[in-house]
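Components:
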Amino acid sequence: MRRIGIDVGGTNTDAVLIDGSRVIASLKTPTTEDVTSGVTRALKLLIERAGEAALATRIVIIGTTHFVNAVVERKRLRRVGVLRLCLPASASVAPFIDWPEDLRDIVKGSVHLLPGGYEIDGREIAPLDEQATREAAVRLRDAGLTDVAISCVFSPLISEQEQRAAQIVRSVMPEARITQSKDLGRIGLLERENVTILNASLGELARKTTQAFRSAIAASGLTAQLYLTQNDGTVMSAEIAEQFPVLCFGSGPTNSMRGAAFLSGLTDAAVVDVGGTTSDIGMLKNGFPREANTVVQVGGVRTLFRMPDVISVPLGGGTRVRTDPRQLGPDSLGFGLLEHGRVFGGSELCTTDIAVATGLIDLGDATLVRDIGRDTIDWTLNEARRRLEDGIDRIKTQAGDIPLIAVGGGSFLVPRQLQGISEIIFVPHHDVANAIGAAIAQISGEVDQIFRDMSRADAISSATELARIRAVQAGASPGSLEVVEMEEMPLSYMPGDCRRVRLRVAGDLA
Amino acid sequence: MGAAVLSAGGGSFPYLELLALLEQLSQAPPVKLVAADCVSDTARIALVAMMGAPLPMFERFADPQHFARPVRVLARHLKSEFDYVMGYEIGSMNALIPVMVAAELGLPLIDADTLGRSFPEIQMSALSIEGVDMTPLAVSDIRANDIVLDHAANGAWVERLLRPLATACGSILAMAGSHTGAQIKTCAHHGTYSRAMRIGKAIREAQTAHQDPVDALLRHERGHIVLRGKIVDIERRADDGFVRGRALIRPEGGGDPGVVHFQNEYSLVEHNGRHVAMVPDLIALLGSERGEPLGTEALRYGQYVSVLRLPPMPRHLTPKALAVLGPRSFGYDFDYMTQDMETRS
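Structure:
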């Protein structure tokens, strides 16, 4: 099946057209301030190169850092009204309590703690107080807020109260954009609520951005469905992304690792993506990036996101090389590489110059780096090797040597042999691995829930069924679904046979 | 941070409880910490803790009024006010809850606890081991359901009677008991708050200065690294309401992997056919790089960890204590042995 994948990164917008496992065309263009014109241009160029083949494509998948950048840069965010159903419990840690002040000043609207919530065994802490909820909704409306976040204690287990509260808010202000925490749900009220608030805050931007992507597609003459990639290497429809922009936050590293898996044909390997400033090293397991278990902060806010477990090592194509005293980075020429790098006529020595001097890559004017001493070259390459080996050792989960896939514009810095690595795989199109990762993204369904009074086997099969239903609802073809991740944690002190099962299935778009 | 180390894996860093406490202390006078020796024999001391499971606390946040409630109930029941607050257990969130209660009630906090770390059950408290009557006790849930346990046959019965109540109330109960200064002076583990703060400070300072936090900790506390390496396998299973399991750690310098066993807390470390640490040794796992204490739930494949053995408290090593806290109480068929019998004094 033909697909167009686009990666809208901070520096470049990359686009590829693939047909099955074949890359038909690929290109890089600069990312534009307004995002849309960069995407429009990328599509236009892609169609010029691939012609008819591109125009017949029915699926466009975009990976973007636009939403996460909005949070990090504190731009384009909306003020949010917050309802938390919890009383008499959970009042001691208020919403927004640990947010960075500048972000809180922008996002924090009217906040209301209301009676409600559930116990871990599913009973109510207190019934929902409909009157109090309605009064809170009126106050949100009177404060001029249209973006609303609703959270509720243990709503990932039972979500009725949250849904009823959303109905009540909607009855008071039909135009409200409401995010419910159960839809972004993992256990951990504060972090789940943080994500719910961030999502509500991005509602307007998400609507505009997905609209802009659709316009770009229409303007290019394509008749294609738009999908966006999410943190776990799978896609969601533009309609879902518009409702849940936070799910796009970590898609960058994910797409590059998925692209690496596709280009190499490997499902279990280490991946290094060497960019301009850093090398990101991660692990592929069953063709998907292994996820981090630790708390992921976005713009200084604690979240419970599924993010790839990636180690960043200060080594990229623009990393500066100093000779007196000897030091490699950590700073990089970044954008300035083409202007200040020695091989481009500048005066700053960087890793790309070293690579050109020793013949690893042909770039710029090699005669400009002839004077670099052998010892500087050897020291730099050794230091680069040491950093990569150290990073690989930290990310590895098993003893024994494993294959490594090298992608990214700076992958010429990866030596042909590394300790702990059985084989280093360099692949064609490695510089657009992100866009390829977007193009091949699958669709998934996830469950993270506590199961009681059933055997381990029954709990896992119930979870699998639920995850499959969710994946099919999201657009997966049922026959292609496979369990890609399963984690089961027995719960201490809980009555009955009680366990938390986190399970994910993924498959092809129907 | 120090409280997380002293939880011996029973809990991780109590982030939410710390947030609640800092919020509370921003509007209340600071809590005074008092050495156990300075308390008069006749002083009335309220001991407090959370009884239940850690997981619900990620959704239902610790509330100062809730945890002070059983103290108020007990004072009413006994028709006598309390002079001090103290904690049962200096591990993870249960180290912070007594501070909350002390701040809420405006009472000083005693620098001591009754477990010297975390242990899974009430009868492992020094009070129970020394035969001190742990009753009367009061427990409260968040909806103001209050129960006074006027008397129980022994510590094991307290555990057996209260555990179902905790389950009935969403697996979170605020608990308070009443004791005298004389009982605390003779039974409790003294100086454990100071110890937790010392440990936490050492780790934090090393982190800030980009030094090795594990080394820094061992400069301040007696103890040593028994194993340092990478987790290469991890296994968990639930039985009798506990999470039991083991983690396989491949040493950094190569060689055979060591095994860390846990039963809610870390209980035994085996390496090269020897038991290199066992309960009641305080076994702590710290991330090798950042020095963050790791609870059993936070362990995962591929983590670089340092396994520390810190010596038990002196009161953990009396014959009576070892009968309850030694390896046999955790189902192992050997007695407590250690290479160096040095303990904290």
